[in-house]
Design brief:
443 residues; alpha/beta; 7-stranded mixed beta sheet; binds iron/sulfur cluster
């Protein structure tokens, strides 16, 4: 009896553990070298990201790899119309298609296709046994251990920790330097205003938020009433509804009306500066993170900005946190968009996670201007939650190196991010050409 074919997860595990031949052929007979299989993506989008393949003429291609049991699944799963798959460099399938199938991206690019069944290093029955331990482990890994990890694992306890803390301190210095340049150009309070606005937009909408803070300077906003501030921020954002108010609930109409009464009188003056829709990301956001709520928070920052500035000068992180935590708006505490139903109970305009990020990215880098060691201690003594990028970096750089009690330390998390951004993110050589091991004295 022929062996049962793999399911999709097993097929992905085969690819992740590199159980195919190092050079495989596409269904058009092109021999390609698998330089690195990429990082296993367990979220939405292609199965592997940052994979690298080399074509017969030596060209290196870096991008996504998508795996399916059958060739036709590419279309059946809608990838041919989904721009998220436009960076796919290889479609890997198990079965030989009964008829020729040419996968193509949404922007009409042909994706080379590989049929894996006949190109494994060993028969599938055996490979299945080799990948079983991986499949049985949960959560599934995202990345293979990197070259630097082999050396770090042989070093005395504390080497990896010191290295990550040094990388974290370097990152903090870079953030401080960036803010320092802005302070030289526009002054401390305007820099604080722009940095907080950018942090409110993080990550999807940080550019439009920064633009708003630049186009509506703090010194000007301070002279306005609350309604005038809201009208300018929402008006300039381009998100103030311009359709008939009849379409909205009465309480939404009540909120929009005064903004329009202010906005229509000054709109012509700002015409050149109104943001188009294009820089805004409005879909796929959690309701609490909607830009409308963050714009309302931005308006409430203005009367607090002097005290936030004083908290930075006094290096008082708790005062900074309390000021942000106290930001409310009677309408936006209970709303997420103009059209969604109002919430049954009020919800913080700036949640705890966002406040932590503002401390990390604004407060401590500003403190760093006056006293670097206090700021480094601030990152050292505070904690940050891991995210998908820090987890990926941890698997590549640290793997089994035990840093558990320190792993949530902000300095360590930021160090991981720095190494990931400086080295892992751009590596397309399965670590072979990465200069990081040499930098840290590993070779
Ligand atoms: S790319 Fe460089 S830094 Fe990243 S895991 Fe490989 S050797 Fe380490």
């Amino acid at each position: 009896m022929p062996p049962r074919p793999p399911n999709e997860e097993q097929l992905q595990a085969v690819w992740f553990e590199h159980w195919m031949r190092p050079v495989i052929e596409t269904d058009e007979g092109v021999r390609i070298e698998i330089v690195q299989p990429g990082n296993w993506n367990h979220g939405a989008g292609p199965d592997f990201l940052q994979a690298a393949i080399r074509l017969p003429d030596g060209t290196l291609r870096v991008g996504a790899v998508e795996l399916h049991l059958r060739a036709g699944d590419w279309d059946a799963h809608g990838h041919h119309t989904d721009p998220a798959y436009n960076e796919t460099i290889l479609h890997v399938v198990w079965e030989t298609p009964t008829k020729t199938f040419f996968p193509a991206t949404e922007n009409f690019r042909h994706v080379p296709q590989v049929i894996l069944k006949e190109q494994l290093l060993a028969p599938w029955e055996q490979v299945r046994g080799y990948i079983s331990p991986l499949i049985d482990s949960r959560p599934l890994p995202a990345a293979q251990p990197g070259r630097c990890q082999r050396w770090l694992a042989t070093q005395p306890t504390g080497t990896a920790l010191n290295l990550l803390r040094a990388a974290g301190a370097f990152r903090l210095n870079q953030k401080a330097e960036r803010l320092g340049w802005r302070i030289d150009a526009v002054g401390e309070k305007q820099t604080l205003w722009e940095a907080l606005a950018e942090g409110l937009g993080y990550s999807a909408n940080k550019i439009p938020f920064r633009l708003l803070a630049q186009r509506l300077p703090y010194a000007m906003m301070l002279k306005l009433t609350r309604e005038q501030r809201l009208a300018r921020i929402f008006g300039l954002s381009g998100l103030l509804p311009a359709t008939s108010l009849e379409a909205f609930d009465p309480e939404v109409r009540e909120w929009i009306k005064p903004q329009w009464e202010h906005w229509w009188k000054i709109r012509a003056r700002y015409d050149y500066a109104i943001l188009p829709r294009s820089p805004w990301k409005l879909s796929g956001l959690r309701p609490w993170n909607r830009p409308e709520r963050r714009l309302a928070a931005m308006a409430e920052l203005v009367p607090r900005l002097s005290r936030l500035h004083e908290a930075v000068a006094a290096r008082d992180a708790d005062a900074f946190r309390r000021l942000l935590d106290g930001i409310h708006d009677p309408f936006w505490d209970r709303h997420t968009t103009f059209t969604a139903r109002s919430l049954s109970k009020p919800h913080h305009l700036i949640g705890a996670e966002r406040i932590n990020d503002l401390l990390l990215n604004v407060f401590w880098p500003l403190v760093h201007q006056a006293n670097a060691s206090t700021a480094i201690r601030g990152w050292h003594e505070s904690e940050s939650a891991a995210n998908s990028v820090t987890e990926l970096a941890r698997q590549r750089v640290l793997g089994g190196i035990e840093l558990k009690p320190h792993l949530h330390e902000t300095l360590v998390q930021q160090g991981l991010l720095q190494i990931y951004h400086d080295y892992c993110r751009t590596d397309a050589s399965a670590c072979a050409d990465c200069p990081f091991p040499k930098t840290i004295g590993a070779e």
